[in-house]
Hints:
Layout: E1 4-11, H1 20-26, E2 32-35, H2 40-52, H3 60-76, E3 79-82, H4 89-102, E4 110-115, H5 123-128, E5 149-154, H6 159-166, E6 171-174, H7 181-191, H8 198-211, E7 238-243, E8 248-252, H9 262-269, E9 279-280, E10 285-287, E11 292-295, E12 301-304, E13 307-309, E14 314-334, H10 338-356, E15 362-368, E16 387-396, H11 399-406, H12 412-415, E17 420-421, E18 431-442, E19 449-454
Helix pairs in contact: 1-3, 3-4, 6-7, 7-8
Amino acid sequence: MKQKVRIAAGQGFWGDLPDAPVRQVEEGPIDYLMLDYLAEVTMSIMQKQKARDASAGYARDFVSLISRILPACVARDIKVVANAGGVNVEGCAVAVREAARELGLGGKLKIGIVSGDDILDRLDSFLARGIELRNMDTDEPLGNVRDRIQSANAYLGAAPIVEALSQGAQVVITGRATDTGLTLGPMIHEFGWAPDDWDKLAAGTIAGHIIECGAQCSGGNCQYEWQSIPDLANVGFPIAEASADGTFVITKHEGTGGRVNIQSVKEQLVYEMGDPRGYITPDCVADFTTVQLAADGADRVRVFGIKGRPATGTLKVSISYSAGYKAVGTLVYAWPDAYEKAKAADRILRSRLDRLDLRFDQVLTEYVGANATHGPLAGEPSPDLAEVQLRLGVRGNDRQSIERFTKEIAPLILTGPPAVTGFAGGRPKVEEIVAYWPALIPKSEITARVETREV
Length: 455
């Protein structure tokens, strides 16, 4: 059993820096590479892809990445844990297996496949048995939107990842696993933590929370003294240097840009935290009020003192559903009187929309450069503003009304206030709105499936 393990974050979301995982592997010693690709909206995007092409529905970027890093990972015994499987874990595993064989790695590694999170085909069965999957925010029953659902996935914890690693997998691919479980799983596997050692499980969970968003804890998107953060073009992604006793150090590779200090770690700690006394995951309930931070040298922060409590009897379910359509149009008005021109254009456009008797659930106007970010808190904009972007959006269930709106933006160029530009993008596009439905389901209803395959 190891006493220390280094888990490196390589992706904070699907679309993060493409070379970050490569640099994590090549620029210093690590034991695990953790790659987090999924967000709530990502699952619905992948489900749409799979509906059009049965072989799609996963993060294809992951396959091309594996082709770049797998030889080095095999040579250095670096294990990869990624939720890149999306809604097609099997398809992702097949693609990774083919990539590994093309690299001449046949017979040299195993791929772990974790599934069981996708419950889209089981929803009617749940509802028929009285499992209502009520919206956690509104308490509405899922039946209210059943005919519009696009994806439904339960958040799996660290346990199936641990099982895949224990079966010898060097690459573990999951669907909708918790972000924190991707880091906690390797710790449980390496340190042999008991399933009821709540303090250590909470520590591993918080370690995963700190590094799950990539460089957001190592200088990126950092509010504190952001101007002084060095070389963000070369930003180093974080590494959790974990010990068997549940303490860990957040750091990054030497010679990389960015910064790891107490402030950068604090900012990530409060990101999406919710109740600090009860951060609930499938594995445990972590108490963020017990977290202790201490500087441990240059770009090193020691984290300790974490307490945890027993896990709950439910899993969170992420459901996406169609919620109508939207379109957003923009025009830019120039000095003088830029803000007044933009407001006049808004009045003119709204009057025309009213005359057309179109059906919208919401019409929203924003003045970018004046108050779009802070709203009423911005106060009255300066009359000397050089330019203001009028951004007007509509949403609703009547697609024809939304499409008609898209034809009303360009006419303002010649029939509205002067000194207008910014229409180079052309007519606004009608987009489908995907809404999020969070729910809870008893753990007894979800069974994770773990399979390990030789390449």
